[in-house]
Amino acid sequence: MNGIFDLPRISKLVVTAIFLILLIGMSIVFGYTNTSVQLAYEAFTNFDGSNEHLIIQTVRLPRALIAASIGASLAIAGVYMQTLTKNPLAEPGILGINAGASFAVVSVLTFFQVSSLSIFTWVSFLGATIAALTVYFVGGIGRQGLTPMQLTLAGAALTALFSSFTQGILTTNEAALDQALFWLSGSVQGRKLEILASVFPYLVIGWVLALIVAPMMNVIAMGDDVAKGLGLKVGLLKITVGIIAILLAGGSVAVAGPIGFIGIIIPHIARRLIGTDHRWLVPFAGLLGGILLLAADIGARYIVMPQEVPVGVMTALIGTPYFIYIARKGVHKG
C-alpha cells in the first residue's frame, strides 16, 4: 500500500483533479457578467464576438488558468520549504521571495514610472531570484553551512530589510503607492494569458524538478545526518530545492503578486489527506493549491460586487484561522 501503485491515493488524486477541473469551469462561468455553461461552451465552439464571449475568452479563461497554475506552484514550493527548513510555518516567503519581488516592483514604479504588467512580471521575477540567492548565500556562511535554522533566520532578516525599504519608498511616493497597492495585495484579476505564458516554462521546470527529487525529500526529511549516511548529496539537494522555490514562488509572484497562506496551509492539509510521502504529497498539494486559489478568486468576485476583493485578501481570510491553529498546535507540542 505504500508503493507508487497505491489505489486509495490514486483515487484521491483523480477525485481532486476532477474537482480542480470543475472549479476551472466555474471560474469561467461565474462572475459579474451573467453567463452560463452553454454560453461558455459556445464561446469556444461558435465564437460570435459578443461581449459575453469576449469576456469568457479574454478575461475569465486566462484568470482561471493563472489561478490554477499559481495556486499549484505556491503549494508545491511550500511543501519543499517546510521539509527543507523543518519549520511547519515556512512558506515561499521565507526565502525573501515576496519581499524581494515587491521591492523590485515598487522601485521600478518609483524611479522609472513603469506601469506595464509585462515589465512588472520580469522585474518581480528578477527581484525574487536575487532575494532567494542572497538568502542562500547568507544562510550558508559559517562552519555549519546551510542549516535549516540559518536559512530561516537569513530569510526573515532579508524579508524585514526589503519590506522596510519598500514601505520607505511608498511613504515618500504617493503615485507609486496608488499603482503598487493592488499588486502588493496579490491578484489574478486583469492578468493576460501572455503574462502566464512568459513564465509558464519556468513553472513547468519547477514542477518537473519537484517530482524528480520527491523520493530524495523523503530521505532528507529524516535529518541531514541520516541522509548523508545513506549517500545522499545533501548540499546539492538543498540547492535544487532552492531552485525549485525560485522558479515556482518567483514565477507566481511575478504573475499575481505576493499571495500568502497557500504555501503554509496546503502542505498541512495535503499531509493529513495523503500522507508524508513526497511522491504523492507533491502532486496532491499542487492540486489542492490550485483548488484553494480558484475558490478564493471565485469568492472574491461576489463579496463586494460589482467591485472585487484582491484574491490575496481572500486567501488571508481563509488561511489565517488555519495558520493560528497550526501555530498553536506547534506551541503546545513544544
From TrEMBL:
Membrane disposition: Multi-pass membrane protein
Q: Where are the membrane-spanning stretches?
A: 12-32, 64-81, 93-113, 119-139, 199-221, 241-269, 281-303, 309-327
Under CDD domains, the record lists: TM_ABC_iron-siderophores_like
Q: What is its main location?
A: membrane
Where it sits in the cell: the answer is:
Cell membrane
Keywords from UniProt, A to Z, are: Cell membrane, Membrane, Transmembrane, Transmembrane helix, Transport
InterPro entries reported in the protein's UniProt record: ABC_BtuC-like (IPR037294), ABC_transptr_permease_BtuC (IPR000522)
By sequence similarity, the record places it as follows:
Belongs to the binding-protein-dependent transport system permease family. FecCD subfamily.
Q: From the Swiss-Prot or TrEMBL record, give the protein name.
A: Iron ABC transporter permease
